[in-house]
Queue: 2 jobs
Job 1
Amino acid sequence: MAEPLRDQGGPRHVAIIMDGNGRWATNRGRPRLFGHHAGAKRVREVVEACPSVGVKYLTIFAFSTENWKRTQVEVAGLMSLFRRYIAKETKALRDRNVQVRFIGDRIRLDAKLIKLMDELEQSTEHCTGTNLTIALNYGARDEVARATKRLALDVRDGKLDPESVDVETLPRYLDTHVLPDPDLVIRTSGEARISNFLLWQSAYAEYEFVDTLWPDFSAEEFGKLVGGYGKRDRRFGGVKT
Ligand code: FPP
């Protein structure tokens, strides 16, 4: 097995915007959902590749707060895909020692999906290998707004001194409060946009925008991008010494 990269300065936390499923399907004359199903297979491949490339945390953008604007057929198809994926993958994820968490607002999700999400989180909470976080009905601005509301309620209830609020305070209220910040954010399909993904958390992340459409993304390409990260020089706003 390859030497874990984290010992050589590789990214501990990689976040991925999995884009291009629709175009991949359209290029083949197939419905967009065909692309999402093909994309789900890549999720499995990339999750499995994490230990060998030293990635301890993987966060994937599965459904954004803006994705509700898609057609009813596509939204319903994606929700059905998430339900099937969770039901089908739970055992394999647990056997691979993957701890799964969901981030995002559950409010608009249907009860059956929420139940499956809860069960998957509970049945993998003892796992100590890869930390897989699935962003579902997630938007960074929505997350910051929800966090700010909770923070304000704690101030109101006397649990938080407003004078003590600093840059360490808000992250404790974000959905990602138990996760380290991403070191590397990858977006597939040639679009160079962040699209409301982990805005606070990615302040110092490196970005890789690759042309590959998500259903064509491979463990090999993932490994190359992760390996390339180790060659970058991160200064966190400081100067090179
Ligand atoms: C973006 O491609 C992709 C999505 C909105 C859905 C991502 C979902 C998956 C990869 C399915 C599996 C996920 C899990 C967690 C099982 P797009 O439809 O915007 O592509 P386009 O830009 O080519 O139209």
Job 2
Amino acid sequence: MREETAVKAALKQHEIELPSWAFGNTGTRFKVFGQPGVPRTPWEKTEDAAQVHRFTGVAPSMAVHIPWDKVDDYQALARHAGDHGIRIGTVNANVFQDDDYKLGSVCHPEPRVRQKAVAHLLDCVGIMDATGSRDLKLWFADGTNYPGQDDIRTRQDRLAEALATVYGRLAENQRMLLEYKLFEPSFYSTDIPDWGTSLLHCQALGDQAQVVVDTGHHAPGTNIEFIVALLLRAGRLGGFDFNSRFYADDDLMVGAADPFQLFRIMHEVVRADALRPAGGIAFMLDQCHNIEPKIPAQIRSVMNVQEATAKALLIDADALAEAQRAGDVLAANAAMMDAYNTDVRPLLAELREESGLDPDPVAAYQRSGYPEKIVADRVGGTQASWGS
Ligand code: RM4
Ligand code: MN
């Protein structure tokens, strides 16, 4: 297996971005269970995200979702993040929670609604200018519920036109990340249901448009690492939204449902030498913690990504390549499994200690006094929640 020092050096450079919405109250359409101490504002979400970075050392940015994280002064929010040792990352646009969007946003049959959606996307680029964010992440709930409800092809034309307008507004150092999702909330057709559709639009737009792979947005059994490998090969993988699914878009903690899949995905990333920030892949979490406490759940998730990554880094690439050349199926599989079956927790604990961190980030957080402090301090006001 690979040298431990090389593995540690690679892990030190790997950064994971946190979603602001993971710190607010979330639930299902059946019930949202509130938790004491949950942030009431984007400022407080930023403070919580900073805690995850404080104990893991590898989560220096927080993605925002607009309008959930709407503030009067985005430069001030970026400064607030900086004061707490992190930065504002990807700007996620929300064009799915307004009554006008019942039949879609950028694909809506009415020009007025399409213009409203595009105006919001352009505002989001303005926010990126203020926060210094590189990436605009677009996910559209657009689609139809019944055959014939709208014209599939015309909707693609509307989508392409809207994307081109927004793309034209990007600065040279900014990117558009285009997310796909198989179904939900639309149940018959989704306007960007898969990586192929996303890639076609990105290719038509230009190099600054990249595909984002949300691990929860595929049919059961989909070989996600294959998609990752193809997009990396094409230079079009902009980032990940990591989470776990057992059934649909469950948004559970990454690495909880299928740590082996996460390992296989990270193997493709390592194989493409795309782990470093310079590799241009945004490693984001996109999760909702419905029943578990939020900050430790984010810490756990970051650790899960690190564990899968460490295992992927441990693969003996030379032995694997040799086995593949020789057509030695069992040796090739063994190279993967030896790495996967390695307990990397001691290595990660060592790495943290070398970086001046506690070897056990969850326990360190629990001991820090912060959990009690937020419960005591955050009394009154309205807790942040998915949808508000
Ligand atoms: C979507 C998608 C997006 C996220 C929203 C909240 O399913 O995954 O990335 O912005 O949910
Ligand atoms: Mn997502």
